[in-house]
Design goal:
Elements (H helix, E strand, L loop, with lengths): L18 E6 L4 E8 L5 E8 L1 H5 L6 H17 L8 E9 L3 H18 L3 E5 H7 L11 E6 L4 E8 L2 E8 L4 H11 L6 H10 L19 E2 L2 H13 L5 H31 L7 E5 L6 H14 L2 E4 L9 H14 L17
Parallel strand pairs: 1-4, 4-5, 6-10, 8-9, 10-11
Antiparallel strand pairs: 1-2, 2-3, 6-7, 7-8
The structure holds 5'-O-[(R)-(carboxyoxy)(hydroxy)phosphoryl]adenosine and zinc ion (ZN).
The site of 5'-O-[(R)-(carboxyoxy)(hydroxy)phosphoryl]adenosine (KG4) has 20 residues, from helix 5 and helix 6.
EC number: 2.3.1.234
Catalytic activity: L-threonylcarbamoyladenylate + adenosine(37) in tRNA = N(6)-L-threonylcarbamoyladenosine(37) in tRNA + AMP + H(+)
Family: Belongs to the KAE1 / TsaD family.
């Protein structure tokens, strides 16, 4: 069976009850959503995070994540059965992510597509994060964006659904990952982002002098491994990790990590302000976009440049299938379907 031919779908002829089922399993969140094609409404969304199971390892263990997806996804799917008769496509995250966890979602998607005789839609997870800004609504272009997640740190420029350029990315660790690693070093658990942010609220963010990454480089790149190692050295030197020490090192680390993001983002805004076809909207997306200090900092830059800040609802900042469904709507209307040869791609070079 193959639906890979391109054939646009007429939205006017799409019935109100037509739906897309979407599956997300790129990392440690098992999630399924059902979205109405006509009005983009999310009629079902469930996500079960595996944070507790990975917490004692201080990070995601791919084999455990994959086994848990194999258990959890069918349980969530059970609740979606009443919608099966109206499904018009099955969407699934195929890139980027962990190879064996992506495979779990893809296997389920292929099985459903075959059994229900409806097409498959392959979705890029990062595009999903971008479209988390436009759940249940029309997308706005052109748009600048800062993507901050556990796997990626990127500056993006989006001109349309199929024109999304990566302007900058990290040369080593990602922003969210550096929070996870600092949390692990301090024995605070996983995911580190919300834990470190919470500790940082009570600390002195100037208590430790930490190096600002890529300080003298004016080009567009991010780096967090040097900062992470500087934090490691401070922790190793500290004999007793008092409550105040933990709060201070978290606050100092967070301040520098955000200052690094902010400095590079500001260069992006400055360039944009001089461009003929500049964007007037800027999104902060990905799991780490929940960080309030980061949000305030980007808001400050947006205010300075007269750009409107867009944020996803908090519950859709981290990985979820609703954002995958939102991208799938666009692909469906463009007739962009995958076939049974669809494969997962752990790494990504474009969106
Ligand atoms: O987008 P996401 O759910 O998964 C990936 O696609 O990677 O992002 C998860 C990442 C984790 O590294 C987590 O620690 C980080 O986002 N994160 C945060 C915060 N909340 C989640 N990082 C910093 N501050 C936060 N408040
Ligand atoms: Zn993500």
């Amino acid at each position: 069976m193959s639906w890979s031919r391109k054939c646009r779908v007429d939205l006017a002829k799409t019935r109100d009850n037509y739906l897309i089922l979407s599956i997300e399993s790129s990392c440690d969140d098992s999630s399924i959503a059902i979205t109405q094609i006509k009005d983009k409404k999310i009629v079902f969304h469930q996500k079960i995070s595996q944070e507790r199971e990975h917490s004692s390892y201080g990070g995601v263990v791919p084999e455990i994540a994959s086994r848990l997806h194999a258990e959890i996804l069918p349980q969530i799917l059970e609740h979606t059965k009443p919608y099966f008769k109206d499904l018009k496509a099955i969407a699934v995250t195929t890139e980027p992510g962990l190879n064996i966890t992506l495979m779990e979602g893809l296997m389920m998607a292929k099985t459903l597509s075959f059994a229900l005789e409806i097409p498959l839609i392959s979705v890029n997870h990062l595009k999903g994060h971008l479209y988390s800004l436009f759940l249940e609504q029309e997308a706005i272009f052109p748009l600048g964006a800062l993507l901050v997640s556990g796997g990626h740190t990127m500056l993006l420029e989006a001109r349309s659904f199929n024109e999304i350029n990566i302007i900058a990315q990290t040369i080593d660790d990602s922003f969210g990952e550096s929070f996870d690693k600092v949390s692990k070093m301090l024995g605070l658990g996983y995911p580190g982002g919300p834990i470190v942010e919470f500790q940082a609220q009570k600390g002195n963010d100037r208590a430790f002098e930490l190096p600002l990454p890529l300080k003298s480089r004016k080009d567009f790149a991010f780096s967090f491994s040097g900062l992470k190692n500087a934090v490691r050295l401070v922790i190793q030197k500290q004999e007793i990790q008092s409550k105040a020490f933990v709060e201070d090192i978290c606050a100092s680390f967070q301040r520098v990590a955000i200052e690094h993001l902010s400095k590079k983002t500001q260069i992006f805004f400055e360039k944009n302000s001089k461009s003929m076809d500049s964007w007037k909207y800027f999104g902060v997306i990905g799991g780490a976009s929940a960080n309030l200090v980061l949000r305030n900092e980007i808001q400050r830059i947006c205010d300075y440049y007269g750009v409107t800040l867009l944020l996803a609802p908090l519950e859709y900042c981290s990985d979820n299938a609703a954002m995958i469904g939102r991208v799938a709507l666009e692909s469906y209307l463009r007739g962009e379907f995958g076939d049974f040869n669809l494969q997962v791609k752990p790494r990504v070079s474009s969106l």
